[in-house]
Amino acid sequence: MAHYDFNMPVTEQQARALRVNDTVTLNGTLYGIRDATLIHMFDRGRTTRFDLKGHAVIHTAPNVKWMGETAAYPSGYAPICIGTTTSARMERFTRPLMEQYGARIVIGKGGLFAASQAAFKDLGGVYLAVIGGAAALETTWIEQIEDVDLDDLNPESLWKFRVKGFGPLLVAMDSHGGNLYTQVNQAARGKRAAALAALGVKSQNLT
Amino acid sequence: MKVDLKQVEEACKELYIRACKILPPDIKQGFARLDKSETDATGKAILATMIRNITVAEDTNNLLCQDTGIPIYNVTIGSGVEVDGFKLKQAIARGCERATREHPLRSSVVHPVTRKNEHTSCGRAVPVIHLDFTDQPETLSIEMIPKGSGSENNSWLKMAIPADGIDAVKTFVIDCVLDAGGKTCPPTIVGVGVGGTADLCVHLSKVAATRPLGSRCEDPEGARLEQELSAVVNQLGVGAQGLGGDSTSFAVHVETAATHITMNPVAVNMQCHSARRARATFTPRGLEYGF
Q1: Which residues, in sequence order, are bridge partners of residue A89?
Q2: Of A75, B1, B11, B75, which one has the greatest count of Cβ atoms within 10 A?
Q3: Cα separation of A43 and A53, whole Å?
Q4: CATH number for the B5-20+64-148+275-290 domain, one of 2.40.50, 4.10.410, 1.10.1740, 3.30.1330?
């Protein structure tokens, strides 16, 4: 269980060095994406001018305030509250994000599934768990919204954040097949029978 | 008591913002209880971060969670309250929209087909407004709940059959908790509706999920069921954020309704750990905010 401080972007080698239960803190650039962003990028043929190569993307849609474009607010937006959404809905976009855009790290909550696990293994990537619902704290790790693309999808735009001390985040899925969510879920399912017995459930063959 | 609708609009704006920022005391106590009994190191660290977040939100006057949810307003009208119901609903929607524009809050509400976001947190039939009546004299109570999607996406209904009895209910709840895993942002309040029609059953599960911790189902059968289920869900080891440990849920809450001789419906609705609520109570003495 090692800790890593990353100045983004990272290399394939850096991503592959991570193992589940390691922790990571990010500095520099972090991209924010979610449902509509990904649907438009991969189902509706839109592209972004941002270079995601070696970068981390976080499943989010922030609360922002329009300030007008100034030196302090280069994107025109001030961050109000930036947190993390459930990753499960974005499962089928992990591979194209990595293959077509070179993203290396996905940050989210609740975990991803087999297709993402395979993409991490094939292409060299990881999933980092951030604590969902702890957005007030997460916002203190964000220095600035540097830029924004696909902003007609606001708040589901493609956001470019500058972060400092973003973490520690837990490596929950790695490129070696490690997946904390699967581990925990399998163990929990193993306790199902005992739980039902404790509740006095006798019927085995419910309709 | 005559209701001032301008004051209702202001209160409904304020309620949305307050609910997003201040966690009710019963939920804070729930965190303290889970933190005390958590035996898993990862679970303990996750709970510590969540508890720290509550303090950071209060210290920085910020939202607890970025998900401003689908706005729900539960209105309870006491006896002797004079109000135009239609105008009351309009005032609530105006307050909701103003909170979104003026704070500002992220509008998380889109048209279900076009997916267009009007940036008002409002749309067809949203905010969700529930109206109920009590014999409480000269009291108008409005409870606001920003229902986050991570937990709301984990909602289920099963039209079980009478032959499967209460076993069907218990099995369904356990399977829902296992299927939800970390997607619901645990620790959760597991809301269970038992009985009624299909729609009433789902509604009851939401009422159960958003009830204060420490409250009990008024039906003794429901109260017994929620006690049994509460004791067992935390033995599954799903844990905070689905990453293991003892803190899968703060509690299981059950609400019941009479049902048909042929029916045995059960619904589950989850409330994430950001179990936000705020309440405004209007009486002849004035307006009071609470939970």
Answers
A1: none
A2: B11
A3: 20
A4: 3.30.1330
CA distance B146 to chain A (A): 13
Residue A61, domain CATH: 3.20.130.10
pLDDT of residue B227: 98
Strand partners, B156: B268
Q: How far is B45 from chain A (nearest CA, A)?
A: 10
Q: Domain for residue A55, yes or no?
A: yes
Backbone dihedral region of A54: left (phi > 0), alpha (psi from -120 to 50 degrees) or beta? Answer: left
Q: Distance (Å, rounded) from C-alpha A110 to C-alpha B246?
A: 17
Rg (CA), chain B: 19
**Which token pair is A16?**
């592959």
Using a CB-CB cut-off of 8 Å, the residues of chain A touching B118 are none
Alpha carbon of B270: minimum distance to chain A alpha carbons (Å): 14
Q: Dump pLDDT digits (tens) for A12-70.
A: 999 999 999 999 999 999 999 999 999 999 999 999 999 999 999 999 989 999 999 99
Residue indicated by tokens 């990881």: A126
Residue A148 to residue A159: CA distance in whole angstroms? 5
What are the residue boundaries of the structural domains of chain B, listed by start? 5-20+64-148+275-290, 149-271
Residue A31 CB burial class (10 angstroms; 0-12, 13-18, ≥19): buried
Please give the Cα distance from A17 to A174 (Å, whole number): 9
Among residues 47-86 of chain B, which lie with CB inside 8 Å of chain A?
A: 49-50, 52-53, 56-57, 60, 62-68
A199–B229: do the CB atoms touch at under 8 Å? yes
Q: Does A118 touch chain B (CB under 8 A)?
A: no
Tally the residues of chain B.
291
Inter-chain touch A109–B182, beta carbons under 8 Å: yes
Q: Which residues of A touch B175 (CB under 8 A)?
A: 192
Answer yes or no: do B149 and A207 touch at CB < 8 A: no
Q: What is the ipTM of this complex?
A: 0.94
pTM exceeds cut of 0.90: yes
Flag whether A204 is in a domain.
Answer: no
- Residues of A with CB below 8 A from B239's CB? 184
Residues 15-54 of A with CB under 8 A from B: 36
- Residue A203 domain-assigned (yes or no): no
Residues of the domain holding A89: 3-198
Distance of CA B171 to CAs A191, B187, B277, B283, Å?
A: 13, 20, 29, 44
In a domain, A207, yes or no: no
For residue A192, give how far its alpha carbon lies from the nearest alpha carbon of chain B (Å): 7
